[in-house]
Design goal:
Bound molecules: zinc ion
Helix content: 25-40%
Strand content: 15-25%
Strand order of the largest sheet: 8-5-4-3-2-1-16
Length: 294
């Protein structure tokens, strides 16, 4: 289930998968797939909520059920070694540095682990960037062949776009979003509960079309990187500001809380003021580590 690659390396292939007519069946399939999984709560620990690094500001990292990381900005500085060894897979939204910064160090800490290799799961275009630019035996060793090709520490798992793949007890569906490089949001679901992560994106459509059809949606995690005073920078780098977030709300399913993350640390104070001024109770700024159980 979900092991096959669809070679989604180009925008053209992605848009083929996301022909508007297919959004309904895709979303239903996502839900139905989660119905096959055992019923239990969905535990999400927020280990890092920022889009940049400074003391006290950890980069984007969510830990799902203690074993699946969604992005890896800060895994090794937040998890003790024992908890690092329990991480079975890292699902990446895209190949920007702030989202995989701790991955090379996590992999190095797992050399010799007896269980299966650490899976790095994402659509093929994301994995290609990591192979080429990170685990290339120059920037960092190619741990898909270490300590030996027969017993590697790391395994890349290309995931189909728009269709769910199984990750432990959850089903995860990658949905393309808008960014300066290929970037994916994810629907993470279990029977009776689901959440959506936007990944890095500017104003977008498809993930909201999918989200509107997800039953039992408990929360949306949405990026906001810059303040409205930096609207030009946000547009050029394809990120959100508070005003853009407010406009996105109309596309989302109603009444679902929206947790904002990925603030650039120098922009945080201003973003906080602008979000407060919107007086929109659904919007909550995720400013510190916290745990959710849905
Ligand atoms: Zn980022
Ligand atoms: Zn990015």
């Amino acid at each position: 289930m979900g092991e096959e690659s669809d070679n989604t390396g180009t925008g053209r292939t992605i848009s083929k998968h996301f022909d508007q007519r297919r959004i309904g069946p895709l979303a239903r399939e996502s839900y139905n797939r989660s119905a096959l999984l055992p019923r239990s709560s969905l535990a999400i620990r927020v280990l890092g909520t920022y889009g940049g690094s400074a003391p006290g500001y950890r980069m984007t990292t969510f830990l799902i059920d203690g074993e699946t990381a969604l992005d890896a900005g800060a895994l090794t500085e937040t998890l003790p070694l024992g908890a690092q060894r329990r991480v079975r897979r890292v699902v990446l939204t895209h190949a920007h540095f702030d989202h995989f910064a701790s991955l090379p160090f996590l992999v190095a800490n797992l050399v010799g682990r007896e269980s299966a290799p650490l899976e790095v799961a994402a659509p093929e275009s994301v994995l290609t960037a990591l192979r080429k630019h990170v685990f290339n035996d120059v920037t960092w060793p190619d741990f898909t062949r270490l300590p030996s090709p027969a017993k590697p520490t790391l395994r890349f798992r290309p995931t189909p776009v728009g269709r769910p793949f199984r990750a432990g007890a959850v089903a995860i569906t990658p949905v393309p979003v808008e960014h300066v490089i290929p970037s994916y949001g994810y629907v993470v679901s279990k029977p009776g509960r689901a959440v959506v992560f936007s990944g890095d994106t500017c104003p977008t459509e498809r993930i909201w079309a999918v989200a509107r059809r997800v039953r039992d949606l408990k929360a949306i995690f949405l990026e906001v990187s810059f303040s409205d005073a930096q609207a030009d920078l946000a547009r050029d780098s394809c990120h959100m500001t508070p005003s853009l977030v407010f406009e996105e709300l109309a596309k989302m399913p109603p009444r679902v809380p929206v947790y904002l993350y990925h603030m650039k640390p120098p922009s945080l104070a201003r973003i906080r003021r602008e979000i407060a001024a919107l007086r929109e109770p659904r919007l909550k700024l995720l400013e510190s580590e916290r745990s959710f159980r849905f």
